């Protein structure tokens, strides 16, 4: 351990500090300067804490280095300077956080015109972030005294380091009273509203993306901190603004009023999805959005419906795209995928029912009614079957279809309140859910019989069919679904019953994970063991592109458990474990006893021999036949 430390290098650093004319550059060339700083070398800290030295360190991290240097050395000294300034040494923190001229030099970096150098921006953000944590009162007071501070940060929001700075101001300020004062200050400066303004078709796409990510992080951080604080603590003003009707309305206007761009719609949708996340009780956002939807919020459903059925958004793919399976004339696009995510999330936030419970009051869900009126789910089903290989879309449509299914009981809600759900009626009558499942299944079977490929949505279609069957048997709308299926045409009803009894039952059986037996063998057989799987399915087999696509598209269904085994109120939670009782261990027990008996016998035969007795060494190789104990292995094919 002693020789790990290079005392020669330390002596060189000490020798430099002995010099009267030693420079910061000379010290920074020494490899152990940072280590000695963190070890609080007294003479080094005295040198570094000088005014001229501190100014030089700040100059290095806020000024673009000369362009003539080698790229590997251009940012060497700025990087070391940043590490010295953020080494968490009390002397340096006190010096930098306690003297306004030094803070002014650091702050001057924000006053540069955009774009900022991303690496220098990260040095700046790390340095001031460390001061926010260690010298909180001094730095917050300094920043509040700078007029236009927030405007400068938002002006450079296209640099990700500025996002980090804002989040540090929100999450790293302690104690709680000072944190609340800081949040009130940021709210007075209208941070939330100004971030929403940046998500606009007229703004740079990078600014829109970073502003959206910042808003999402603020929402999650604020909700997490609210969960950790006591109930009587003051509400987060930034979160209250972001969850307000006015702020959401402004965001929707930016997304859909006037010019519509893909980047603006995607960034805005990401914020809406974050707002709809369930992270704390109370359903404050749900009540404000869904209890009394504004005309703008109902309009967004109409606009989203238009987006789902067209590709007219500026920036969307309007040309063919070459894929492994051919040319896709009109790709789905990221915009329509996000619209599908938003629709699925809106349906889920209604707690999979027609009503919303908030503060012990039942509200009619106008949003769900509007989605039914606009025929949105039917459009999403069209996309589901059109884009055969887009499993991202398939999953979102599956969530939409499953939203009226079994759900947790809501507090203070009469049990018979869910006897009729318009969304269920819309799915089974207007969207023709059962006939479309049957048609798609039959078309896939016919295609495979002709040598074609299994369609990529079949795994999700299986889960949708199982959801329908499960919802018929239990859940708040089981009687309504049973009645709707009874009303089907005689031919369609008969095909459905046959499908459930035969095709669906068979695919569920294949998709159930089988318990695979393992060989009993001694450790000496590891090198020459054989694969228990069929040769054509061994790991050495090269999979075709089709097989890879099939594995990707159906992985969850082929190796997952049936949904009803893990449903919230299902009776089959122990079904998987009960199957263990069906295994016959007799063969394994006999094989194990025979194997161990043979091994023990070999020691018993040599019990009387002297292990230290000299013997003639024979190098002849003897081959002894070995008895292998193998069992039959079951393997489910991926297609």
UniProtKB/TrEMBL annotation:
GO terms for molecular function: protein phosphatase binding; protein phosphatase regulator activity. InterPro entries: SAPS. GO terms for cellular component: cytosol; nucleus. Belongs to the SAPS family. PANTHER family: SERINE_THREONINE-PROTEIN PHOSPHATASE 6 REGULATORY SUBUNIT 2 (PTHR12634:SF15), SIT4 YEAST -ASSOCIATING PROTEIN-RELATED (PTHR12634). This is Serine/threonine-protein phosphatase 6 regulatory subunit 2. It comes from Oncorhynchus mykiss (Rainbow trout).
């Amino acid at each position: 351990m002693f020789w790990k430390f290079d005392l020669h290098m330390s002596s060189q650093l000490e020798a430099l500090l002995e010099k009267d004319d030693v420079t910061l550059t000379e010290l920074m060339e020494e490899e152990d300067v940072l280590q000695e700083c963190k070890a609080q070398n007294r003479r080094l800290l005295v040198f570094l804490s000088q005014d001229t030295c501190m100014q030089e360190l700040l100059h290095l991290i806020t000024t673009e280095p000369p362009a003539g240097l080698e790229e590997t050395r251009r940012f060497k000294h700025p990087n070391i300077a940043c590490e010295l300034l953020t080494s968490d040494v009390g002397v340096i923190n006190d010096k930098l956080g306690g003297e306004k001229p030094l803070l002014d030099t650091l702050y001057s970096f924000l006053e540069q015109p955009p774009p900022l150098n991303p690496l220098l921006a990260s040095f700046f953000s790390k340095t001031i972030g460390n001061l926010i944590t260690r010298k909180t009162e001094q730095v917050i007071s300094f920043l509040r005294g700078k007029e236009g501070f927030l405007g400068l940060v938002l002006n450079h929001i296209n640099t990700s380091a500025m996002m980090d700075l804002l989040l540090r101001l929100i999450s790293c300020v302690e104690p709680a009273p000072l944190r609340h004062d800081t949040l009130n200050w940021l709210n007075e400066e209208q941070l939330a509203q100004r971030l929403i303004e940046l998500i606009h078709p007229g703004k740079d796409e990078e600014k829109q993306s970073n502003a959206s990510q910042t808003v999402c992080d603020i929402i999650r951080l604020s909700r997490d901190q609210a969960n950790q604080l006591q109930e009587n603590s003051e509400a987060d003003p930034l979160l209250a603004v972001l969850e307000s009707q006015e702020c959401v309305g402004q965001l929707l206007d930016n997304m859909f009023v006037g010019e519509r761009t893909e980047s603006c719609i995607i960034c805005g949708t990401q914020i809406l999805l974050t707002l709809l996340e369930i992270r704390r009780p109370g359903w404050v956002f749900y009540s404000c959005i869904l209890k009394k939807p504004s005309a703008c919020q109902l309009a967004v459903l109409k606009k989203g419906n238009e987006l789902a059925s067209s590709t007219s958004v500026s920036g969307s793919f309007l040309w063919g795209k070459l894929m492994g399976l051919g040319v896709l004339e009109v790709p789905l696009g990221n915009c329509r995928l996000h619209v599908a995510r938003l629709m699925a999330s809106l349906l889920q936030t209604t707690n999979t029912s027609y009503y919303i419970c908030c503060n012990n009051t039942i509200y009619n869900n106008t949003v769900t009614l509007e989605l039914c009126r606009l025929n949105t789910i039917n459009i999403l089903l069209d996309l589901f079957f059109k884009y055969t290989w887009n499993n991202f879309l398939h999953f979102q449509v599956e969530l939409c279809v499953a939203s009226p299914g079994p759900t947790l009981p809501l507090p203070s809600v009469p049990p018979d309140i869910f006897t009729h759900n318009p969304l269920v009626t819309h799915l089974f009558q207007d969207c023709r859910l059962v006939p479309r499942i049957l048609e798609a299944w039959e078309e896939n079977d016919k295609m495979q019989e002709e040598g074609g490929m299994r369609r990529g949505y079949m795994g999700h279609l299986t889960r949708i069919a199982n959801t329908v069957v499960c919802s018929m048997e239990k859940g708040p709308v089981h009687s309504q679904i049973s009645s709707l299926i009874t009303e089907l045409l005689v031919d369609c009803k008969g095909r459905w019953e046959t499908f459930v009894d035969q095709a669906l039952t068979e695919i569920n059986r294949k998709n159930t994970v089988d318990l695979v037996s393992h060989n009993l063998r001694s450790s000496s057989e590891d090198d020459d063991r054989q694969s228990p799987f069929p040769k054509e399915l061994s790991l050495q087999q090269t999979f075709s592109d089709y097989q890879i696509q099939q594995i990707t598209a159906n992985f969850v269904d082929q190796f997952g458990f049936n949904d009803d085994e893990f449903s919230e109120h299902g009776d089959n939670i122990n079904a998987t474990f009960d199957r263990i009782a069906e295994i016959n261990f007799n063969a394994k027990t006999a094989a194990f006893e025979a194997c161990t008996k043979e091994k023990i016998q070999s020691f018993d035969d040599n019990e009387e021999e002297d292990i230290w007795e000299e013997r003639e060494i024979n190098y002849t190789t003897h081959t002894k036949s070995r008895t292998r104990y193998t069992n039959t292995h079951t393997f489910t094919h991926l297609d």
